[in-house]
Amino acid sequence: MKIVLNEQELIHKALESKEFDEKNYGIVLRVLTKHYFLFGMDKQQVKDTLAVHIRERVKKYIHKDWISRIEYAIKNVQKYGVELVNIDKVDITETELQRIKDINDNDIEKIAFVYLVYAKILNKIKSNNDNWVGIKIKDILKDALITKGYKSIREQQTVLRILNDMGLLRSSKKVDNTSERVCFIDYTSDISFSINDFRDYVLTYLRWKGENIGNCETCSKLIQVKSNRKLYCLECWHHREKELKKQWKREHDKNKKVEV
Ligand SMILES: [Zn+2]
After folding, report:
1. Ligand 1 is a single-atom ion; what residues have CB below 5 A from it?
2. What is the pTM of this model?
3. What is the pLDDT of residues 226-248, one digit of tens each?
4. Would you list the domain boundaries of the chain?
5. Of 139, 120, 150, 128, nearest in space to 178 by CA
């Protein structure tokens, strides 16, 4: 998911951490700027506080670079508002699901579903969003859990054209723009299910279609159930394997000692 759904949580993390997430600096600066404005600081105070925050956490701190990034964040927050984003769920309706199912191509269905979820989230964040999604197709594919195919721009454009031809999406006419408008949003028909956990959320669609989808026994993340072995997501499974190996080694070492 390319959008931060709970900005308060991110503010907490950023303030508690002794490090600064440089890779996502734009997002971190945005939420901290909101936080300090909400705290009652003025522009200059926000700027100074952020500069101190970064200097304390970044190894090679170059003041003039960071100040221009901070100023950019402040400008944007002033333009778009200080209200914190907090999306706890997205409702999906029966009509929307039916429209997606009618595509009749598993991968493209998943892509359409991801577009739908993004549009609904962005509509909640910006009241005048009007069903637009400005997310790169490579990030859409990632959320759709599609790892094979669609690597070339031509293939990606083909998928978008199919969805445009079916009337499900409408591409922005602007050149060099990755915006798509989702045209099958429906807030009136019955809600089929709500998404409240956004880890691998595309699986909620496959579960609706009847695929065998379960929850990881450790972290409850959605997973595709392929056998009857115990249910773990990949991360939890790796973690468990490591622990079991450690445990086995301990037992083995203990037995060795007894033998001596
Ligand atoms: Zn797990």
Report:
1. 216, 218-219, 221, 233, 236
2. 0.83
3. 877 778 898 999 999 999 899 88
4. 7-80, 90-205, 215-260
5. 139
